[in-house]
Amino acid sequence: MSQCTSKQAPSATQSKPALCVNAQSMPRIIKYLALIALSLLYCNASYGHSFGQTYTLPVPLSLYLYGSAAALAVSFLVFGYFLRADNLQANSSIRLNIPNTLISALRSAKPWVQGFSVFMLLLCIATGLLGNRNPYGNFNMTFFWVIFVLAYAYFCALTGNSYQWLNPWKILSDGIGRFYKPYQQGLFNWPARLNYWPATILYMVFIWLELFGTATPLSLSKYLLAYTVLNLLAAGLVGIRNWYKYGELFSVLLMLLSKMSFVCRRTAKENTEPSAVIQSPFIRLNRSAPSELSLLAFILCMLASTAFDGLHESQLWIRTFWVDLNPYFQPYVGTNPFSAYPKLRTLYLIYQTMCLVLLPLIYFLIYYGFIALSKYIVNSSFTSKQLALHFAYSLLPIVLAYHLSHYYPLVQTQGIKIISLASDPFGIGMNIFATAEWFRAPIIPNVETVWHAQLGLIVLGHIMSVYIAHRQALELFGSKRQAMLSQIPMLILMIAFTVAGLWILSLPMGNPS
User: Fold this and answer.
1) Between 377 and 9, residue with greater pLDDT
2) Distance (Å, whole) CA 62 – CA 84
3) Does residue 38 or residue 464 have the better pLDDT?
C-alpha cells in the first residue's frame, strides 16, 4: 500500500529512512545513521507551518494520480466542446446596491479599523519582545503566521483586496506623509525596469525566513521591526504609491490572490449608487493579464515555494542529502560524524537555499517551454513572451489550491487558538476576554479526511486553471480549433503539476530542519 503524509497535527513519533545493510557496509551505515540522528536531534522547529503524520492510503497512490489526470483530461474535453468565443461575455453577476447609510457607517469606521490594523502590528511586535518565549503560548506567532499569512490571504481570495485599505505599513507611511508632504512623492522616481522585482525578491526572502529562520516570538518581532523600518524608508525614497504597489510583498501577494474573488466593489458613476457585485469566481482573471515578466515571476515563486515547502520536509529530501550525497562531502568535512556535523549542517542550509532559489527558475523554464510549444502548434504570430503573460493568471487557481491543501490543517488546528491567546497575548496568565481557557486542548483532525480534502483541492484548482486557460485561448485566437490545439501543451503541464503536487503530499515526512 502507498503511504501519504498529510500536513496537519503534531505527531509524537517520526519515521526514519529505511536502509538495507550488510556486514561489509555496516561501519559506513553506522556513520550515516549517526549523522541523521544528529540532524534530527539538533534541528530548529519551524512553527510557520504544520507537521506530518503517516497515513496509509486506502488505494495505491498511482490510482489517485491516474484518476486526477483523467479528471483533467475529461474537463478539457468538456470545456473544449461547450465553450465558444461568442458566449464568453455571457457572465452572470448579481449587483447589490449599497445604502447610503451603510456607506456613511463604513466611512466612519474606516479610521478605527485602520487604527486597529496598526495596533495589531504593534501588539505582535510587543508580545514577541516582552511576552512568553513559548511559540505556542505567544500571541504573535499564531496571529502573524496563521491568521494573517494564511487565513487572511484566503479571505482576500474570496472577498477582494481589503488589504489595500488595511495595510498597517501603508497606514503608517500615510501618517508620515500628512505631516511631511515630500515624503509622499519620495526622493526618486520609481525605475520602470524594476517593476515587481523588489516584491519578488522580498517574497523569496520571506519564504527563506519562514522555512529556515529562527522560529521564536522574539525573532518574529525583530523581523517585523526590520520590515517596518524597510517599508517606511523605501516609501520615503520612491514614494508611498510606488512602493506599496510594486515593492511591498504582501501588497502584491494579496492583490494577486484577490483577483480570484467573487465580490468586487463598483464606485458611483453617472448618479448611480455604489454597489457590490457578486460574480463568478476567477472571472477577473480572464479580463486582465500582467504586462511584465516580474509579475509572472512572482506567481511562479508562489507556486514553487509552496511545492518546496512540502518537499523539503519529506524523508526523501532529508535522506538524499544526509545519506546519498554524504560520501561526496567526506573529503571536505571528514569521516567522523560528530566533528563533521557542524560543517554538514552549514552545507545543508546552503544546499536548501540554492534549491529554493533555483526551483522558481525551473518552473519558469518549464512553463515557458510549454508556452513555446503552444505557439509552435498553432503557428501563432504572438511572441512566446506575450503568450506567457497572457496565460499567467491561469496559474493562480493552482497557487491557491497548493496553498490551501498544504496549510489549511494548520488554520484548523492552530488558528482557533487565537481566541484563547487574545485573552492572554503576552502569555503571562491574563484573561482579558474570559476566553483564556478556550480551545486549549490539541485539535487533531481525521487524517483520511485531510488527505482527501487535499486531493480534491488540488484537482479542483487545476480544473479551474484548465477552464481559465481555455477561455483565455478563445479570446486570444478566436478560433475554437486553434484554442483547443494551443491548450494541449497546457493540459499536459496541468497534469504534470497535479501529479507532482499529489506526489509531494504523499511523501512520508521527516523532521523539518
Assistant:
1) 377
2) 34
3) 464
Please identify which residue in the block is written with the cell numbers 532529508.
318
CA–CA separation, 474 and 329 (whole Å):
53
State the pLDDT at residue 110: 82
CA R_g for the chain: 25
Whether the Cβ atoms of residue 64 and residue 57 lie closer than 8 Å to each other: yes
pTM as predicted: 0.82
Are the beta carbons of 184 and 237 closer than 8 angstroms? no
Helices (H), 160-196: 163-166, 168-179, 182-185
C-alpha cell, 390 = 497572457
Query: Residue 337's closest CA among 42, 30, 44, 22?
Result: 30
The answer to whether the beta carbons of residues 487 and 374 sit under 8 Å apart is yes
Secondary-structure breakdown of the chain: helix, strand, coil percentages, each rounded to the nearest 5? 70, 5, 25
Whether the CB-CB separation of 445 and 412 falls below 8 Å is answered with yes
Say which DSSP state 314 is in.
Answer: B
Which residue is it, cell 490545439?
Answer: 485
Quote the cell numbers at residue 251.
501588497
pLDDT (tens digit per residue) in 103-123: 677 777 888 988 999 999 999
Nearest by Cα to 77 from 483, 375, 401: 483
pLDDT score of 18: 36
Q: What number is the average pLDDT over the span 283-303? A: 86
Q: Which grid coordinates belong to 339? A: 566533528
130-155 pLDDT, tens digit per residue, is 888 888 888 888 899 999 999 999 99
